[in-house]
Every structure is written in C-alpha cells, then in structure tokens.
Amino acid sequence: MSKYAIVYERAGDGTWSAMIPDLPGVWSIGSTIPKARANVLDCAEGWLELQAEQGAMLPDRVHKVEEVSITLPRSLVARRASRSLKPKKRTRRR
Fold first, then answer.
1. pTM over 0.85
2. pLDDT tens track for 2-43
3. What domain range includes position 30?
4. Number of folded domains that form the chain
5. What is the CATH number of the domain that holds 16?
6. DSSP 7-63
7. Is 74 domain-assigned?
8. By three-state DSSP, how is residue 77 classified?
9. Which of 33, 46, 52, 89 lies 20 to 30 A from 59 at CA?
C-alpha cells in the first residue's frame, strides 16, 4: 500500500473535484468531498491496474500537501464576512 495526496477543489456549482497529482489523469468529481474521494480512489485503482497490466512503472511521488494558517488583511476578512451575510438567490427549476 502506498500513500498519495488528494487535492480537492470546490466548483462554482457546489460540486467537488478530487485529483491525485502523482497519478497523471486520475481525477473525479462528486457532490460532496466524501463522494469525490470515493470516486477518485476508484479511478486510482483502475489506473493502477491498467499500469500493472501494461508493465509500466509507477511515477515517482513528488507531491506533498500541507495546510497552513495565514493571517488575512482585515479588509479581506470584512469582505468575506459581508459576502456570507448576503441572502443567496434562489433559482426556480421548471
């Protein structure tokens, strides 16, 4: 078993994409992070099986992910707070 980094990104429509940078082309989407994670892990398993069938070597792991805390300028904090207080527009589906 090997450990790989998964990177998540939220799209404008609220869905999440997940990718494993050390496995080229391995990415997926989901309506939530857990769904995106399950989908990308399924994709990774298939990718790894294909690599094994083709006798290919695994690429080197070169990505590492770390979360850090960064102090934001007060103006950005205020803008983010005011944006989250605005009521969201609802769209009607037909």
1. no
2. 889 999 999 999 999 999 999 999 999 999 999 999 999 999
3. 7-68
4. 1
5. 3.30.160.250
6. EEEE-TTS-EEEE-TTSTT-EEEESSHHHHHHHHHHHHHHHHHHHHHTTPPPPPP--
7. no
8. helix
9. 33
